[in-house]
C-alpha cells in the first residue's frame, strides 16, 4: 500500500501548490507588451507603457499610459495609479529609450529593474529611439499590435539584414564583460504607420557616446557577428552588383604582443544576384571581389578608429587580448591601451556564382 500513500502525498502537494498560484485573467489585467522612457528634465524620467485591448474579430487596439517620476524605479507604480486593472510585465517584447535620456541620464538604472524581474525574459529587445519613445509608441504599425511590430522589425533585421544579435541578455553580458562595451539598435518613427532601423548606438558607462548610420551597420556586423544571409551592393567601373546570400565569419589573431596588434580575418562568400553591366565574366567577378574586399577593409578600419577615439570596445578586442596574454590587466584598456592598439583587417571575399543581369 506504499504506492497508494505516495500518490496521495503527491496529489496533496500538487493541490496545495495550485492553490498558491495567483490566477490572472487577461480581461482583468493590463498586459504590458512594451515600455518606453523619455527625458523629462530636472532629473525626471517619463515612462510610457504600451498594452493591447483585445476585441473580437478585430486587430488589438494599442493603448498607452504615461507617468513622470524622479525615482526611475517608481514609474510603473505611478502608472498603476492611472490603471483600472493590475499592470503585468510577463509579456514584454521591447524596451525603448529616448536618445536624449540615454545620452544624458543613461539606461543602467532602468535596465536593472527588468533584469531583476522574474517575469521578464532575457530575450527582451532593447532599443534607442531617435526622437521620443512615447511618440514612436503612439503609432499604428500593424494588425498584430505595435509591440509585436517593433519586435518583428528587430528580429527580421537580425535574421536577414545587417543588425548583429542583440537583446537584454547580450547587452548585460557586454556591459559586465571585461574588455567589451555594449550597443543597441536605434529606431526612428517615419510616420504613424512606419518605423525604420536607422543605426546602432554605442554605450560607455551606460550612456550613449556614439552612433553609426544604417550604411555602416553591415561592416559592424562583419566585425562582431556572423552572416548567414545578407545583401550588399558593390560598385566597379563596368557596373553595380547586388551581392546576396552573403555568409561571413571572422577570426582574431594576436599578431604582435608588444606593441599590441590584432589581425582580424573576415571571410565573405556570396553570389551576384543582380548586375547592371552587360555580362558577368570572370574578369568582372574578380573586380567585384577586389572592390568588395577593399570596401570591407576601409569601412571596418574607420569603425575601429571611431571606437578608439570614443574609448569604447563593442567588438571586444580587450577581452580577446585578455584571453591571449596571461595576467593581462584590463583596468587601463579603454583609457590608454585601446588607443595604442593596432588593428589590421584582412578580408577574403569569394563570389561563387552570378545570377540575373539587368
TrEMBL record:
Keyword terms: Germination, Lipoprotein, Membrane, Palmitate, Signal
Subcellular location: Membrane
Domain Spore germination protein N-terminal span(s) in chain numbering: 23-188
InterPro entries for this protein: GerAC_N, Spore_GerAC-like, Spore_GerAC-like_C, Spore_GerAC_C_sf
Coiled coil: none
Record domain Spore germination GerAC-like C-terminal: where: 198-355
GO CC term, one of those recorded: membrane
Primary location recorded for the protein, binned into one broad class: membrane
Family of this protein: Belongs to the GerABKC lipoprotein family.
Protein name: Ger(X)C family spore germination protein
Organism: Robertmurraya kyonggiensis
Amino acid at each position: 500500500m506504499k504506492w497508494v500513500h505516495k500518490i496521495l502525498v503527491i496529489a496533496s502537494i500538487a493541490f496545495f501548490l495550485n492553490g498558491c498560484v495567483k490566477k490572472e485573467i487577461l480581461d482583468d489585467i493590463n498586459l504590458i507588451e512594451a515600455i518606453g522612457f523619455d527625458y523629462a528634465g530636472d532629473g525626471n524620467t517619463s515612462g510610457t507603457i504600451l498594452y493591447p485591448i483585445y476585441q473580437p474579430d478585430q486587430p488589438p487596439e494599442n493603448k498607452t499610459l504615461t507617468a513622470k517620476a524622479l525615482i526611475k524605479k517608481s514609474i510603473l507604480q505611478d502608472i498603476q495609479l492611472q490603471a483600472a486593472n493590475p499592470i503585468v510585465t510577463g509579456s514584454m517584447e521591447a524596451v525603448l529609450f529616448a536618445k536624449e535620456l540615454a545620452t544624458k541620464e543613461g539606461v543602467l538604472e532602468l535596465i536593472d529593474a527588468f533584469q531583476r524581474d522574474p517575469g521578464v525574459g532575457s530575450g527582451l529587445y532593447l532599443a534607442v529611439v531617435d526622437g521620443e519613445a512615447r511618440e514612436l509608441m503612439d503609432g499604428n504599425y500593424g494588425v498584430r499590435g505595435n509591440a509585436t511590430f517593433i519586435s518583428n522589425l528587430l528580429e527580421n533585421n537580425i535574421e536577414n539584414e545587417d543588425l548583429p544579435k542583440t537583446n537584454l541578455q547580450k547587452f548585460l553580458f557586454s556591459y559586465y564583460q571585461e574588455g567589451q562595451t555594449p550597443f543597441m539598435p536605434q529606431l526612428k518613427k517615419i510616420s504613424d504607420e512606419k518605423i525604420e532601423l536607422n543605426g546602432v548606438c554605442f554605450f560607455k558607462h551606460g550612456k550613449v557616446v556614439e552612433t553609426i548610420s544604417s550604411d555602416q551597420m553591415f561592416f559592424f556586423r562583419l566585425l562582431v557577428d556572423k552572416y548567414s544571409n545578407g545583401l550588399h551592393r558593390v560598385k566597379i567601373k563596368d557596373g553595380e552588383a547586388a551581392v546576396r546570400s552573403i555568409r561571413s565569419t571572422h577570426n582574431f589573431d594576436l599578431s604582435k604582443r608588444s606593441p599590441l596588434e590584432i589581425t582580424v580575418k573576415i571571410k565573405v562568400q556570396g553570389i551576384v544576384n543582380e548586375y547592371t553591366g552587360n555580362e558577368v565574366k570572370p574578369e568582372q567577378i574578380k573586380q567585384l571581389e577586389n572592390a568588395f574586399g577593399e570596401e570591407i577593409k576601409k569601412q571596418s578600419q574607420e569603425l575601429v578608429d571611431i571606437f578608439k577615439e570614443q574609448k569604447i570596445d563593442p567588438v571586444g578586442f580587450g577581452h580577446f587580448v585578455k584571453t591571449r596574454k596571461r595576467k593581462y590587466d584590463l583596468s587601463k584598456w579603454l583609457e590608454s591601451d585601446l588607443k595604442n592598439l593596432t588593428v589590421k583587417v584582412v578580408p577574403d571575399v569569394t563570389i561563387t556564382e552570378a545570377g540575373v543581369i539587368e
